[in-house]
Every structure is written in structure tokens, then in C-alpha cells.
Write a structure and sequence with these properties.
Elements (H helix, E strand, L loop, with lengths): L1 H12 L7 H27 L9 H5 L7 H11 L1 H18 L5 H22 L4 H15 L3 H8 L13
Helix pairs in contact: 2-5, 2-7, 4-6, 5-6, 6-7
């Protein structure tokens, strides 16, 4: 109800504006930075192994049928510190690339791949924070909307593309 009222008031008060290009641009920059900070946080807790710790002896000898999906995934990820660190490095790389408009598209592409993997693991193993990872994937996809036409030309249509207009 509050959203509907806010939309109605905004639409009436600002009915003469032809578009919201500048507001959209600021929104995408905001999303880039929120996504970058989030990826850096989650990436560093994997690079410095603290999210997925090696399983204890008790976990290793307990019957697999006693584990729920999330517990099983934590043991699986904790068993391979190198794999966890690799995933963390991918998240950190995407986060760092998102800070600059010049490298934001590459960062968003990497973030999309990394977060698609995280979303699928969260969904398939019943991890309770799945909604957050879906939001991060959505943010990466929104950041990619700036270069959607160029990416489609390059990857799908086999057409030449022009450099991005960074407006700086």
C-alpha cells in the first residue's frame, strides 16, 4: 500500500519529466557498489578460510544420512580449501572489477557466473540464505543491462560492436 501511494504521489508530482535516465544511471552505480562490497566480503571469508572450515573427525565418521543438505555442503566445501579459496578469489575479482565503470562489465560477467553457481548450490543443498544470493545474481544482471546490446552483438549475433560510452 505504501509503495502504491508513493508511486501515485511521485507520478503526479513529477508528471512532466520525460524519462529517468539519470536516476537509472545512479541506481545502477549504487547496485555496482553494493554488489562489489558484498562480493568482497563473501570472497575474503573464503580466501582466508573462515566460512568453510575443514570438517572435524566427528563429522567425517558420522553417517552421511544424518546430515541435512546444508551440513553436507559445508563439509563438502570445507574438505577442499583450495576449491573454496578459488571461489573466493572469483568473488573478490568480480568485486574489485565492479568498482570502476571501465571494468564493471567484466566484473558483472564474472559475478553472474559466480553467483549463478552459488544460487544453484544454495537451492540444491537447502542453504537458508538462498534469497541473498539470488539478489546478488539479480544485481549483476541489472549492471549488465548497460552493455546488453553490445554483449548480444559480440556473443550471440556475431556482429561488430563499438567501445562502451563511459561518459567520462
Amino acid at each position: 500500500t505504501l509503495s502504491l501511494v508513493g508511486t501515485l504521489v511521485w507520478s503526479i508530482a513529477d508528471r512532466k519529466r520525460a524519462n529517468y535516465d539519470r536516476l537509472h544511471e545512479l541506481f545502477v552505480v549504487y547496485l555496482r557498489y553494493v554488489l562489489a562490497v558484498s562480493l568482497l566480503f563473501y570472497g575474503f571469508i573464503k580466501v582466508i578460510p573462515s566460512q568453510f572450515v575443514p570438517p572435524s573427525y566427528a563429522q567425517l565418521i558420522s553417517p552421511i544420512g544424518r546430515s541435512n543438505g546444508m551440513g553436507l555442503m559445508w563439509v563438502f566445501m570445507g574438505q577442499s580449501t583450495a576449491y573454496s579459496m578459488f571461489g573466493g578469489l572469483a568473488e573478490v575479482s568480480a568485486g574489485l572489477l565492479l568498482y570502476s565503470r571501465r571494468t564493471a562489465t567484466l566484473g558483472a560477467l564474472i559475478a553472474t557466473g559466480v553467483m549463478a553457481n552459488v544460487v544453484m548450490m544454495n537451492l540444491c543443498y537447502g542453504v537458508i540464505v538462498t534469497q541473498g544470493s539470488i539478489h546478488f545474481l539479480g544485481m549483476a544482471l541489472v549492471v549488465l543491462t548497460y552493455d546488453l546490446k553490445r554483449l548480444a552483438n559480440l556473443f550471440l549475433l556475431n556482429r561488430p560492436t563499438q567501445p562502451a560510452d563511459l561518459g567520462q
